[in-house]
Amino acid sequence: MISVQDIIQDLEGLIQELEQSLGQASSFQELEKIRVEYLGRKGRLAQVMSRLPELSKEDRPQAGKKANEIKNKLHELFEEKKESLEEQKNRLDLATFDPTIPGRNPDVGSLHPITRVIEDICSVFIQLGFDVVSGPEVENDFYNFEALNIPPEHPARDMQDTLYITDKILLRTHTSPLQIRTMLKRKPPVAAVAPGKVYRRDSDLTHTPMFHQIEGFLVDTQVSMADLRGTLTAFLHRIFGPKTRVRFRPSFFPFTEPSAEVDISCVMCGGEGKIDGQTCRVCKETGWVEILGCGMIDPAVFAMVDYDPEKYSGFAFGLGVERIAMLKYGIGDLRMFFENDIRFLQQFV
Ligand code: DAH
After folding, report:
1. pLDDT tens per residue, range 270-290
2. Cα 316 to Cα 119: distance, rounded to the nearest angstrom
3. Looking at the structure, do residues 172 and 246 belong to the same domain, yes or no?
4. How many structural domains is the chain composed of?
5. 50, 174, 229, 289: which sits with the fewest CB atoms below 10 Å from its CB?
């Protein structure tokens, strides 16, 4: 027959042993092992409790009471250890958390460089008082050619260049039809820029069948070539920097008279023609790059839109967006704009 003292001694022994085991535990795994060992269904406490029925009836209540006390004490010790481990872990997490490690950025979209250049250019002209207008990419012969003083036998109408849909309907080959469409809708003074896609039957290293242009024009009383020069020079300085030199060369366009082509000092070599003694690839050693076409609107065009050429004068210009983007960002290959390689596009965020 076992005595109640034996049982109580064993129970109290459990407390000491558990304290010792817990003192050595340093992880949640170890803690769980100890929990099973002492408090589990077949653990040390359960083993002692299973011996209670061996006691005499009189002794059982006293031992039972003690057993309960010990059980609670064991649970308490266990919980305390658990809390202290958790606290330790939190402190460790803080100590190993490095706030200087860069976060993971979510992927954000970006504007296509062509869109960006269009927005940049339009914003300069908006600040100069121009409106932004747009029109259809599927045009008819009248707006694309006839009203722009391009007669039927003009080479620009050649099948080589124009993508025809029917005899009279075509994909616009330039944004100049927006001059006509806008002038037919409004009376002077009028100043507008018109960005958009244009199409030509042309495809090689330096030509794509679709590309972008921006047309611009201004009509009022007493508009002179000096206004044209001043406006375009201010614009080019804004886009390429105030040190850029600008020159006007006589040229020909059917819808302007006189006409000019505008060059800027080469953005690659700064107009030197050479870089480290080597021929500049962009300007081919000339120091200049062609940037746009322009001129004073031909009275024949005014006649088409019913503007009085005695009263009004105006200037117009047209530029290629891809070309400006290539020069501005130093992009050597036109195809970059159309391949949409994400590594290329991400540089324009
Ligand atoms: N439309 C011409 C082209 O596509 C560009 C151009 C030149 C537009 C002179 C103009 C201009 O308005 O005055 O080549």
Report:
1. 999 999 999 998 899 999 999
2. 19
3. yes
4. 2
5. 50
Please check whether residue 107 lies inside any domain of the structure. Answer: no
108-145 residue pLDDT tens: 888 999 999 999 999 999 999 999 999 999 999 999 99
Q: Among 154, 253, 297, name the best residue to mutate to test ligand 1's pocket (greatest count of ligand atoms within 8 A of Cβ).
A: 253
Confidence of residue 159 (pLDDT cuts 50, 70, 90): low
160 CB-contact burial (10 Å; exposed 0-12 / middle 13-18 / buried 19+): exposed
Residues with CB under 6 A from ligand 1: 174, 176, 215, 253, 256, 293-295, 316-318
Q: Find the CATH number of the domain harbouring 281.
A: 3.30.930.10
Same domain, 129 and 188: yes
Question: How much is the pTM?
Answer: 0.71
Residue having the nearest C-alpha atom to atom 12 of ligand 1: 317
Q: Which of 96, 123, 144 is the last residue of a domain?
A: 96
Question: pLDDT higher for 175 or 99?
Answer: 175
Closest C-alpha to ligand 1, atom 8: 318
Same domain, 303 and 254: yes
Q: Is 222 left (phi over 0), alpha (psi -120 to 50) or beta?
A: left
Distance 120 CA to ligand 1 centre (A): 20
Same domain, yes or no: 40 and 136: no
Q: Is 104 domain-assigned?
A: no
Residues 220 and 223: their CA atoms lie apart, in Å, by 6
Residue nearest to atom 5 of ligand 1 (CA): 318
Are residue 89 and residue 166 in the same domain, yes or no?
Answer: no
Residue 247 confidence class, pLDDT cut points 50, 70, 90: very high
How far apart are the CA of 15 and the centre of ligand 1, in A? 97
